[in-house]
Amino acid sequence: MFIALAVLGLVVGCFGTLIGAGGGFLLVPVLVLLYPDDSPATIASISLAVVFCNALSGTIAYTRQRRTDVRAGLWFSATAIPGAVLGAIVVNTIPRTAFEAILGVVLVGAAVFLFLSKPRAVASQASKGDDLFGPRVEYPHALGLALSFAVGFVSSLLGIGGGIIHVPALVHALGFPVHVATATSHFVLATTAGAGTLTHIATGAFHEGWRRTIALAVGAVVGAQLGAYWARHARPTFILRGLAIALILVGVRILVHAMNAVHV
Fold it and tell me: Do the Cβ atoms of 146 and 140 come closer than 8 Å?
């Protein structure tokens, strides 16, 4: 079982880093299907801990490539971390069926948004150039901070890492170039997932899943390095479309599972 979970972590970590989403949006649906008796808090805590390991590994790789807007990432983290703590607390009050329904709606909604939207042509012109910390992007600060709080909350509430929301928001709402958005999102994921995981540990939700987390994290750390390498050669359109396709597939699957559970 350890090897199977490690391979799953490898796939999740690789694809999650490639598109800057952390991989939790793929891992949570799989955990929901593999462990039907686990509570939402247990599933979210396992996924979020794996997302942290994946995001930290990917962030190191992206920073070495000088693709991360570190200043923006620090500002976003300042509001995303409180949101992550709040989400990790709220998930303990949500029934399993409601958790699955919310997860499915979020995934499908994000997929539809990506299919209907296109990266803004001016996004690549928003960069102020590189400095010691990497690229710098001009963006509406108040909107960026508000979006980051929401991303932090959703990331801990559902255990999906928040990148599926943050990357589209950075590109379409804040004007980030796609490759800078994926790297900066990963930076924020590392901080928020770490805060959410610590909160899950404090609430006791994590003690049932730490063994599975270790196996998944081993694969995710390796996968993150592979995903960061391949991301250097991936086209922005491929990144966004790949994310959308994956979201709609897993989102519909989870919604069907939740509706079947209601009728049972």
Answer: no
The answer on pLDDT for 174 being more than 80 is: yes
Residues 6+ apart with CB under 8 A from 244: 110, 111, 114, 115
Q: Rounded to whole angstroms, how far apart are CA atoms 21 and 46?
A: 16
pLDDT at 196 over 90: no
Contact present, 112 and 245 (Cβ < 8 Å): no
* Closest-CA residue to 176 (of 218, 209, 143, 216): 143
Total Cβ atoms within 10 A of residue 65: 15
Give the burial string for 202-216 (b: 16+ CB within 10 Å, else e).
eeebbebbeebbbbb
Q: How far apart are CA 163 and CA 25, in angstroms?
A: 8
pLDDT category, 133, cuts 50, 70, 90?
A: low
Radius of gyration for the alpha carbons in the chain, expressed in angstroms and rounded: 17
Interatomic CA distance for residues 71 and 73, integer angstroms: 5
Confidence at 187, pLDDT banded by 50, 70, 90: very high
Amino acid at site 85: V
Domain boundaries, the chain: 2-263
The rounded mean pLDDT for the chain is 82
Residue 136, φ and ψ in degrees, nearest 5 = -125, 135
The letter for the amino acid at 142 is A
pLDDT at 126: 46
- The rounded percent of the chain whose pLDDT value lies above 90 is 17
